[in-house]
Write a structure and sequence with these properties.
Elements (H helix, E strand, L loop, with lengths): L5 E7 L6 H9 L7 E6 L6 H11 L3 E5 L10 H11 L9 E5 L3 E2 L4 H11 L3 E12 L2 E4 L12 E5 H6 L9 H11 L3 E12 L9 H14 L4 H14 L3 H17 L8 H22 L2
Parallel strand pairs: 1-2, 1-4, 2-3, 6-9
Antiparallel strand pairs: 4-8, 5-9, 6-7, 6-8
Helix pairs in contact: 7-8, 7-9, 8-9
Length: 292
């Protein structure tokens, strides 16, 4: 059986140190990408030269330079860079599309397994592995998200659902909204815990964790959360991350800030209603499990 055809788009900003890890692991895949597009997003280091060097040896590795000067902003800017790479494609040439961070290295069978998941389940809209972080010389799976959430670092989208949901949102929270919209349109999302990817830079290293919590709170508003859901989400974040009280406060503060400033949501009212009900259902399930 012929495996599905795919393309990978990777935004890269000052990734000279980490990019070779990704490129070597992509070259070593048992099911190789038709194209790997690296979008050099205004880097001030040698990121572009690293890509050019590999591109001379592998014609499927391509460099796109983003010359627009934009303020670094988690979420929005990285998606804009992704979309710049996306513009280079005839998307219908590919069965699935991958957004991949530049600071990863993948097991050699990663995309062979991803392709097989899509082929074995026609209702599967999105699939991905899990990220691990090195601690004291040991690679440990990062626990920064629910077990059914695909990290923004390694999203694979079936082309049909990517088109159906209108592509990625250029805002913080894009990597949660995409999954919720996937489910909204009747498709499934799958996390394969056997696909352990090495993440060479810790989450929130660039912006700091408390700033990341503030932005997470703003995301709750963008997804049309009620205040109760935002409060519960803030409490949950505080239970997982330290310092807990500051984490809760900064997350809730972000939600209140976005609400007070009337910042525009990234989903419509009907999609927002679905998201709220989906979240409430998950909370109810967890509560029932606690009392079993």
């Amino acid at each position: 059986m012929q495996l599905l055809k795919y393309v990978v788009i990777t935004p890269a900003y000052n990734e000279e140190e980490y990019l070779p890890f990704l490129l070597e692991s992509m070259i070593g895949q048992t099911h190789q990408a038709a194209q790997l597009i690296i979008v050099n997003d205004g880097s001030t280091d040698e990121t572009a030269k690293v890509v050019e060097k590999y591109g001379l040896q592998h014609d499927w590795i391509k460099l796109v330079n983003n010359t627009k000067k934009e303020k670094r902003a988690p979420g929005a800017k990285v998606v804009r860079a992704f979309l710049l790479g996306f513009e280079q494609l005839d998307v219908q040439d590919y069965d699935f599309i991958v957004k991949l961070d530049a600071d990863l290295s993948l097991p050699e069978h990663y995309f062979e397994t991803i392709a097989k998941h899509f082929q074995q389940n026609e209702q599967l809209g999105m699939v991905g592995g899990v990220c691990s972080l090195q601690e004291d010389g040991v690679w440990i799976v990062e626990k920064v998200a629910d077990d059914d959430h695909i990290r923004g670092a390694l999203k694979a989208y079936r082309t049909k659902i990517y088109n159906k949901m209108g592509g990625l949102r250029t805002a913080m929270g894009w990597d949660t909204v995409d999954e919720l919209l996937c489910r909204y349109y009747g498709w499934q999302v799958k996390v394969d815990p056997s696909l352990v990817v090495k993440h060479h830079r810790p989450t929130n290293k660039e912006v700091g964790f408390l700033k990341g919590s503030f932005k997470c709170g703003k995301t709750f508003h963008y997804m049309r959360y009620s205040f109760l859901l935002a409060l519960l989400g803030s409490l949950k974040r505080g239970m997982v991350h330290k310092p807990p009280l500051k984490t809760i406060w900064y997350t809730l503060k972000g939600y209140i800030s976005a609400w007070c400033n009337n910042e525009p949501p990234i989903v419509d009212e009907q999609q927002g209603a679905y998201i709220r009900q989906y979240r409430y259902n998950k909370i109810q399930k967890k509560i029932k499990q606690l009392f079993k």
